[in-house]
């Protein structure tokens, strides 16, 4: 009778081990599913961050183009102003010469009228 009891215990032990194994497999699966979910969330966040970065880069590029246009416009304005300044200098020189001539003429006239 002792032999048969031992067999039952061994069978019971095997069933127990199988239940434990099933439990651990379930635990591992749950763990894997959880970590997989976490990875998917992390990946989604990264993709969203990437698209946001692309958006920001696009905005920065547009701003740079606008600034470049403004700089070119300013450069053009400066060039025109330089040309105007040169013309004004010529006119000032001409006026100065005319003033000198007229003062000479006045001197000559005053000499003549004495």
Automatic annotation (TrEMBL):
What keywords tag this UniProt record? Lysosome, Membrane
Q: Per the record, what is one GO cellular component?
A: lysosomal membrane
One Pfam family in the UniProt entry: BORCS7
List localization entries: Lysosome membrane
Family named by the database record: Belongs to the BORCS7 family.
What is the protein name stated in its UniProt record?
BLOC-1-related complex subunit 7
The source organism is Rhagologus leucostigma
């Amino acid at each position: 009778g002792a032999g048969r009891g031992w067999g039952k215990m061994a069978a019971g032990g095997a069933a127990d081990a199988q239940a434990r194994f099933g439990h651990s497999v379930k635990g591992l699966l749950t763990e894997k599913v959880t970590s997989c979910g976490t990875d998917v969330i992390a990946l989604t966040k990264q993709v969203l961050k990437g698209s946001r970065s692309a958006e920001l880069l696009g905005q920065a590029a547009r701003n740079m183009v606008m600034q470049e246009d403004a700089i070119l416009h300013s450069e053009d304005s400066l060039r025109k102003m330089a040309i105007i300044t040169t013309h004004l200098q010529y006119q000032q020189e001409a006026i100065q010469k005319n003033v000198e001539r007229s003062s000479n003429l006045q001197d000559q006239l005053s000499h003549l009228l004495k």
